[in-house]
């Protein structure tokens, strides 16, 4: 195995961010009593609202039978429920429960505020440079994720 190329300080900080982000996600999953796949499903339901099971399966990268198991677990824990699709009563959507959204946001909101507050010491021009850098990092990551 080859040694990774030497990384500059911002790149090392991003590597550490990825590690800490994974640890934070594991913490959120433990608090909600869900596994990583269930947490990924909840993230999509909370950010996008109700989703058809097929769309949820596509977003989290699982098969339709696997998403059925995910939704079953989320329902059993009170995190989500199946409801009639208002656009097509013959199908269903998975909806996050309000209590679960509140619990999740209670964990996430303080972290989001702290991350946003990290920009407070930078003037608008510096914040623009930071934003451009992070957008380029996201593009670099995307370029290495198979479609």
Structure description:
This protein has a domain at 16-117: Arc Repressor Mutant, subunit A, CATH 1.10.10. The chain has a two-stranded antiparallel sheet. It has helices at 9-32, 36-48, 53-60, 64-76, 98-117, 124-143; strands spanning 80-85, 88-96. With 147 residues, it is mainly alpha-helical. A hairpin with a 2-residue loop joins strand 1 and strand 2. The model has no long low-confidence stretch (mean pLDDT 95). The longest helix has 24 residues, at 9-32. The protein is globular. Helix content is 67%, strand content 10%.
Summed up, what is this model?
The chain is mainly alpha-helical and 147 residues long. It contains six helices and two strands; from the N terminus they run ααααββαα. Helix 2 crosses helix 3, helix 2 (36-48) packs across helix 4 and helix 3 crosses helix 4.
CATH T-level fold name of the domain at 16-117: Arc Repressor Mutant, subunit A
Q: What gross morphology would you assign? A: globular
Low-confidence stretches: none
**Structural Rg:** 19 Å
**Highest CATH level, the class of the domain at 16-117:** Mainly Alpha
- What's the rounded overall pLDDT mean? 95
Count the E strands.
2
Q: State the end-to-end distance.
A: 26 Å
Give the ordered list of helices and strands.
HHHHEEHH
CATH architecture of the domain at 16-117: Orthogonal Bundle
Strand content: 5-15%
Structural class: mainly alpha
Number of helices: 6
Largest sheet, strands/sense/barrel: 2 strands, antiparallel
| Relevant CATH superfamily of the domain at 16-117 | Winged helix-like DNA-binding domain superfamily/Winged helix DNA-binding domain
Widest beta sheet: strand line-up: 1-2
Helix percentage range: 55-70%
